[in-house]
Design goal:
The chain is of the alpha/beta class. The protein folds into 2 domains: 323 residues, L-arginine/glycine Amidinotransferase, Chain A, CATH 3.75.10; 83 residues, Arginine deiminase (Pentein). Helices cover 32% and strands 22% of the residues. Strands 11-12-13-16-17 form a 5-stranded mixed sheet, sandwiched between helices. A 4-stranded mixed sheet has the order 1-22-2-3. The chain has a 3-stranded mixed sheet with strand order 6-7-8, with helices on both faces.
Length: 420
């Protein structure tokens, strides 16, 4: 039985899950991209070519790269009961309507595992479903109101491109995350199916930090209300420490849930909450701060200098935590890593270029091993400063991928990475 886990941010990357741009991104339009959390529509064929280059660079360095949609299809094929449960979750009376729930579930159940995976991510229209919805108008409000066969029965999930967010591996386990925006919450169902039923994971040994498993083997997902978390805010930096951004999309309530699970099972000794301002340009911690090496990081100073750091450690005398307000974020990270000082490579250029390169994910890089990172080539000023600091930078194109406001860190969900 293999043991999976992510034990640092920069140790050698062994296995990673990504999602190649697909049907869901082909369904972004000028009228719906805001609702689906994109700033623009993408030229999908170009985005696919850019993503293929990204994957090729990782594989060239020995990383095993797995495609999320393939894993989902294989999980559904391996365990039909998982497909049934997933269909029940995504096609409920609240998502497709009380009058059509049985019909929609029957349609989805008739799909092959591969086709079901395609539409669970890419979305499903009335026309694609084959449902004669208009003929159900005598007993269905949905059918009576329908005026377009291209209406979605299941909306697409284009943010699946950013595999970091829906789940994140922290040392010897994984958190399947309650997402902030409703447009993304179904992504967590898909990754839960993968982790529970794909043979690679079913035969491995690891913990679920969140959610908890009930006595029947199903996940117990409580009404999280204002408690959400996304993986772009989570960084297991090594040495028993975890950084978690307290950002637009990750709340303190959920950080406490994860910290409690980690401490109870001895997986971590310290969780540093990074209290950030809330802004679309830096929606997650990894959009302004990522590690480059054991003692090097890149950061957007305008935001990072204003982060308030609060450390949680296991409590005593019946209290869940001991809380320490740190003097500043960067020194707290250095202390947690056990290094004398953290060398910070700031976003490059003048104040205007810094803002542009942060927007274009200049600080959102993914390490393949200590001192080797992948970055979008357009961030020339920041890349030059990284190289001057002794970091090897592998450049990839990001003309279309970058429109989603996510770089290499956002587009990867590592599930096996060495400690440092």
């Amino acid at each position: 039985m293999s043991t999976l886990g992510v034990h640092s941010e920069v140790g050698t990357l062994r296995k990673v899950m990504v999602h190649r741009p697909d049907l869901s991104l082909q369904r972004l339009t000028p009228s719906n991209h805001d609702d689906l959390l994109f700033d623009d529509v993408l030229w999908v064929e170009r985005a696919q070519a850019e993503h293929d280059q990204f994957v090729a660079e990782m594989r060239e360095r020995g990383v095993e790269v797995f495609l999320l949609q393939d894993l989902l299809g294989e999980a559904l094929a391996a365990d039909p009961a998982t497909g049934t449960r997933l269909i029940e979750l995504v096609a409920s009376e609240y998502t497709v309507g009380l009058s059509l729930v049985d019909e929609v579930r029957a349609v989805l159940a008739s799909f092959t595992p591969e086709r079901l995976a395609t539409h669970l991510i890419g979305g499903l229209t009335v026309d694609e479903s084959g449902l004669e919805v208009r003929q159900a108008a005598d007993h269905s409000l949905i059918g009576a109101a329908l005026d377009d066969a291209s209406t979605f029965v299941l909306p697409p999930l284009p943010n699946t491109l950013f595999t970091r967010d829906s789940s994140c591996w922290i040392y010897g386990g994984v958190s399947i995350n309650p997402m902030y925006w409703p447009a993304r919450r179904r992504e967590a169902y898909n990754v839960a199916a993968i982790y529970r039923s794909h043979p690679m994971f079913a035969e491995a040994e690891f913990e679920f930090w969140y959610p908890h498993e009930g006595p029947d083997g199903r996940f117990e997902i409580a009404d999280f209300g204002l408690s959400s978390m996304e993986g772009g805010d989570v960084m297991p930096i090594g040495n028993g420490a975890v950084l978690i951004g307290m950002s637009e999309r990750s709340q303190g309530r959920m950080i406490e849930q994860i910290a409690k699970a980690l401490f109870e099972r001895g997986a971590a000794e310290r969780v540093i909450a990074a209290v950030m301002t809330k802004d679309r340009a830096h929606m997650h911690l990894d959009t302004v701060f990522t590690l480059l090496d054991r003692d090097k990081a890149t950061a957007y100073p305008k935001v990072v200098e204003n982060i308030r750091a609060i450390s949680l450690r296991p409590g005593t005398n019946g209290r869940p935590f001991h809380v320490t307000v740190e003097d500043d974020f960067v020194s707290a990270v250095a202390d947690a890593l056990g290094v004398p000082k953290l060398l910070v490579v700031e976003t490059g250029g003048d104040v205007y270029q810094q803002e542009r390169e942060q927007w274009d994910d200049g600080n959102n890089v993914v390490a393949l091993e200590p001192g080797v990172v992948v970055a979008y080539e357009r961030n020339t000023y920041t890349i030059a400063k990284m190289r001057a600091a002794g970091v090897e930078v592998i450049e990839i194109q990001g003309f279309e991928l970058g429109k989603g406001r996510g770089g290499g860190h956002c587009m990867t969900c590592p599930f096996e990475r060495d400690p440092i």
